[in-house]
Amino acid sequence: MAFLPLSTPARRIGALLAATGLVAAGLLASGVLERSAVARDVETPLTPEAMKALAPQGAKVAAAADCFACHTARGGAPWAGGLPLETPFGIIHATNISPSAEGIGGWSRAAFHRAIRDGIAPGGRHLYPAMPYTSYRGLSPEDVDALYAYLMTRPPVAVANKANTLPFPFDQRWTLAAWNFLNLPAEVAEPDPARSPLWNRGRYVAEALGHCGECHTPRNALQAMRSGAALQGAVIEGIEAPDITPSGLRRMGFEPHGLARFMAKGLSPQGGATHQMFDVVHFSTQHMDAADLAALSAYLFDRDALPAEPETPPAPAPAAVPQAVSLRARATYAGLCAGCHGQAGEGIPHVSVPLRTNTAMRVANPGGLLRAILVGLPAQRFPGHERMEAMPPFAALIDDAALADLATWMRAEWGGQDKAVTPEAVARQREGLRADASH
Fold first, then answer.
1. Does position 24 have pLDDT exceeding 60, yes or no?
2. Where is the Cytochrome c domain (predicted)?
3. CATH number of 197-300
């Protein structure tokens, strides 16, 4: 098949577009279009006395920002990095942030500010947004200084950073300049004078310090948070991070005081924190001031003040289930579940969480419930010397049809869910877990 040659105008247009693209790429790569949130006054180093005075506040900032959980590998040295983070583009390893030569030991105050708030490390090296600098951009300079002082007073750990496993072109860090240009907020949110100090503090804790949206906000094709769907839920490493908007929280059975207690303790009538949320409670929120947890709850429920007393969220009305499904499911529940979770799903203190008030029955996606039944949950210790026993895996003891009936009945009976779980959905979940285990 013959191709006709391009006309002279077409060639000129093509050349112009190519040249424009090259110029744009050059500008992005050069950093000319980078928008920094960092003021020039951080060029002045902090004195040793200031570092010592700021470190205790920095410990609180580090806890609220959940730095330890990401920058400490399981069984690894504190702050030495190495934790693998799964992304749609490959594996990114958290880096060493101890004050060693392999970590941030040579970083200046200004360099630390630019890394935290602009996503650019010394030497102009762009950080991957798996490090939530898009949220940390909203941190106050005072909190960044305190965090810097705290980290620089930790013991240095000489552990080399692990290489990421990203295919081309995602392994090219200069391309992140374009990502930042498109997705990094140009401005930092200022306090809203129309809202209370409690709500405004809660917004700072949720959006900047705690960076809740990084897990609970769905992402677009470029893996940037979708601003129009803030906190409406997402899937992170195969685990559902639920909708935590006011309506989503109420649907799960939370009320403001109860949510603050859950963030402090990791246990509530709605269940126990699991997977990444367990780490959030264990390493972060249990160490936060009660005032900040109250502010966080007020913001997430969009209230200027917490109610004087805890509220009792209404239980959803049971949804109808075919009698045959109900009979089969009740028999399965009695045989597999009732011994630990109670005949009526009431749970057993210090052994197992309740099911009849559990969020897994009330969220739209049954994936979390199916996953827990198939692969189980580890024994966990919670703040206040509380614990829950391990939940064994039941994958070998229940087939897809029986699990579909069980999940359908429990979610209808205790969550008011009128959409049946199908054997096909169970099969997909089972296959996905097999694929995860093979990696």
1. no
2. 53-155, 197-304, 324-414
3. 1.10.760
